Amino acid sequence: MNTNSNGELLLEMRGLRIDGFRDEQWHEIVKGVDITLNRGEVLGLIGESGAGKSTIGIAAMGYAKPGCRISGGSIVFDGIDLMKASEDEKRDLRGVRIAYVAQSAAASFNPAHQLIDQFAEIPVEHGKSAKAEAYADAKDLYARLQMPDPDQIGYRYPHQVSGGQLQRAMTAMAMSCRPDLIIFDEPTTALDVTTQIEVLVTIRDIVEQFNSAAIYITHDLAVVAQMADKIMVLRYGELVEEADTRRMLSDPQEDYTKSLWAVRTFRKQVEPPAKEPKALIKVDHVSASYGPVPVLHDITFEIHRGHTVAVVGESGSGKSTAARVITGLLPPKQGQVYYDGEPLPRDYRRRSKDQLRQAQMIYQMADTAINPRHRIRSIIGRPLSFYLGLDGGEREQRIRELLEMIELDPDQFIDRFPSELSGGQKQRICIARALAAEPKFIICDEVTSALDQLVAEGILKLLDRLQQELNLAYMFITHDLATVRAISDEVIVMLQGRIVEQGRKEDIYTPPHHEYTELLLSSVPEMDADWMDNVLAERANKGGIQSAGN
Amino acid sequence: MTDQNSTVGQSADAVAPPPPRDRNWADAWRELKRAPLSAKFGLLVILVYVFVAFFAPVLTPYGESEVVGPAYDVWSDARPLGTDNLGRDMLTRLLFGARNTVGIAFVTTVLAFLIGGIGGIIAATLGGWMDQLLSRVVDILMAIPQLIFALLLLTIFGTSISNLVIIIAVLDSTRVFRLARAVSLNVVVMDFVEAARLRGERIGWITLREILPNILPPLAAEFGLRFCFVFLTISALSFLGLGIQPPTADWGSMVRDNATLITYGDITPLLPAGAIALLTVGVNFVVDWFLHKTSGLKDEH
Description:
heterodimer; A: Rossmann fold; Rossmann fold; six-stranded mixed sheet; B: mainly alpha; MetI-like fold; 10 helices
């Protein structure tokens, strides 16, 4: 956060225009954006998917993805006009003076080589340093990035380290030639909150240490507030607003910016109905394992009619596995799942049609959860004819009702294919398909985590409204505590296959917390530029837990 | 993409798309017009062959195995391509050959795809011992060189057209099986298949409605290639005397029967070979175009 800028201009883009090729035509996807960046300055680019923020970030290297072209404007990096520079000149800059850290570190490393070899590749290739020097430098950087066992970890292969470590190894790699500019493209989006804060801290520190300038691309406002000196809000390839981080947070000018800021304020309004004596779903002392590897250890919880139970935890905590046990995809080793007091067969193949109908599931990736070759009519219509025996006009009528329920115009959407829908619309179709079965209970597995914040909020509101209208019970699996706060009645916190804490939302969110719940809660970035410093200070005082994620 | 414009009544993309069926045809026609020259040429060749196969008896005054003149007669007005080793009209034999060779190859390929495609999808969907059983059977069949295996089986079961079709279809279905299984495995792990399973759908629905539509593009492209291979295998077998039996006209055996003419510098025996080559090239042009289209579609998702 400290502005190290000494006012020396490093990167200047003027009237940048970029076209994308789609439907056999060139479309303008970045429509004249100006960016100036001084040495040592961190610029945050935020916007929803499709806003053009990644495209602009990559354009800072004078590069356009396949299917895109830079059609206008100027890009000047430290006096070099990248629009006129030859490929060779640009290649000399990339990786050496301008580095790029991608969202998915797992996809950006070559799985067949050790981390340290991949680190050394660029400095050695560009003649910056000898191999031994590069190796020593890698170990130094790994230590600075607080990776465990910095002397040895480089000799591992990408699949042998965790996601957070891989993201840090990637940051180290970007640092290998001490670039003047680093472009971070959503580097923490794929990480758990507890890991995210560690990566954020190390990225911020190392950028400061080497006085690099950075462009930090993200859709998460709270994250960018910690990292950037100034923020640019983009929409549809155009600049909406640009300001210093603090002013942007405290006093956004444009309506669109304000709406982005307001997203996190959605709260469920209505109190859940009183608990009935018999729980709708009861998971009773369940243990489960994948082959010989135990994943769930003796978990017990109840979900009542009309209630929303949020299950939170990091990846690998067993929260999705719990859902698989309830649906019968993974028969438990021990224990029993009850539906309305009746024991459910352990394997879904032994369950009756009616038992299957009662519990529906909504998935994280709406893209893969609906068949791309079916029209909306048959996607929603199938459960209607399969479970309820509807056909002909009756079925058509019900499909239309369901589409209206999820706020999509039936006349427009009923004949479309999924590829003709946006991400949020696809997720709505998944909800309609689940509702078509007329269930009492719906499992929502990270349903909003692949969506932009505004869209996600729309989905949460829809789910909330449907719950009140239809008295549905939700099991809401998520790693996002903002979502939990918005929608849940009760919360279950899971860690390594065990339930750490469970209870009413108010109880979970008011201290005293379990130690792990505390760590989770304090790791959620807040819309406050000083949040990370405060958290670090607090943790340092308490001591110890900061390293719990390693 | 924002979701805001999805709310009823205030949609930004409110222009209603045309009814789906019309749209499909219109799309297909537009695609066809934009197709590269090679693909258009390929389509034309295929259409001509299909036309000839259907209307062979109308296009020529002679019968398929009717002796109309002396053996190895030269090209003349009455018999534009001369006669063959038994004095049958060469052009007539060539036209009927289209019907026999192409027709049999087509039936064989369809059969191979039915066997291999269904087997492959079922192996991928069910997994476990069923997958093991089917895959190992296929491994065994593939362990023996195809042409030699076909020769062996034809010798054992006798050379009738039905035997020929069944044997080649079974041997070729192993290749289809492997492709169908591999592409199905990618689809089987998708959430929508899991959703269908959790809905309680039977295996038939899952394979036919959930998986098959998603693996159709690679299978259709493979169909074109397989058709060529089957076609060539049948011609090769006929050339060796174990394929389509005389007096039925067939391009492979026509080459063999008239091979002696080449010694005298006559190109007539090369015409059936040319007919084989032309169709193979045409089919491959179309397949290339189709593969290009479908892989282009994949980028959009």
